[in-house]
Amino acid sequence: MTNVSVLGAGAFGTAFALYSHHLGHRTRIWAFDEGLPERVAAKGENTAYLPGFPTPADVLFTNDMATALDGADLVLLVVPSSFMRSVTAQAAPHMPPGALVTSTAKGIEQESLALMSDVLADTIPDHAPTATYLSGPSFAKDIASQLPADVSLAASDIETARGVQEILHSPLLRVYASNDVVGVQLGGALKNVIAVACGAADGLGLGASTVASLMTRGLAELARLGVALGANPLTFLGLAGVGDLSLTCNGELSRNRQLGLQLASGKTAREIVTSQKAVAEGYRTSMAVHRLAAREAVDMPISEAVYKVCHEGASLPEEATRLMQRERKDELAGIFMTTD
């Protein structure tokens, strides 16, 4: 039996805890919310984040980090990117020396523009060299419902990824190993920004052709920035790229798509995100992408439009018009270079 500790009791963390238990692993889950473990024990499910899915009594929810990490063989970091640094710093003293670590966070740290791999190098330096990064099309409710899904799992050494793959892979969740740590992380983060644009296009009634165009040209933006930061461009044609992009841009459960829909209704991004308990990562990530694109001199017009609407109060219809009035381009220009 593998001892799996999940840090983060939101929808995805809870879903992965249920999945881990289904595989026969001893599973513990750390919750930031005080009182959540008691409420889960009383109600038999995590009604705050994943209602409707019974939680087995032997899946331990706790607010105590030491208890959550006691004897862990695999630690799943399932927290928003903005909390990764603080949570892993808190976890560091309690991490078993030989534990493997997998991050599922899909975002970029705002202040430093660091990927989660860079954050872990700072906070858990002894574990960071063998850390893995999971991304791909996988809604929490689908995982909890035991519906089939595929994901990508990257490590600097692909043999490390294959070791974690052995723990998490099953007929319900096919885990594909990769050695493109940068690409898998960027795909998971940047697709959220494009999903906001697709939701906005839907909300404005611009049609399915517009959404398909945004996804396709958004994928080109992902690849351009990825190549500039050292990723393998082929990664963006896989699960962490086009796979996750397709789900997040089209899926009704996508918080980022829902953010775009609400922007199209006339609400401001700030009032939308402050009214929600769950995090729409695309809102924060659009700021980081704006800064990264400027730093790397990468043209990312769709992502820039999302940034302007979310953080500068730009008009959504005007940004849509501006995108369509840009100068003519060759379709593949800049995909394997840092400029368009």
Structural notes for this entry:
There is one protein chain. The chain is α/β, with parallel strands linked by helices and 340 residues long. It folds into two domains: 3-179, 3-Layer(aba) Sandwich (Rossmann fold); 182-324, Orthogonal Bundle (N-(1-d-carboxylethyl)-l-norvaline Dehydrogenase, domain 2), CATH 1.10.1040. 49% of the residues lie in helices and 11% in strands. It is built from 15 helices and eight strands. It has helices spanning 11-22, 36-43, 65-69, 84-91, 116-123, 140-144, 158-168, 181-203, 208-228, 239-250, 255-264, 269-274, 281-296, 301-311, 316-324; strands at residues 3-7, 26-30, 60-62, 74-77, 100-103, 132-135, 149-154, 173-178. An eight-stranded mixed sheet has the order 3-2-1-4-5-6-7-8, with helices on both faces. The N and C termini lie far apart (51 Å). The model has no long low-confidence stretch (mean pLDDT 95).
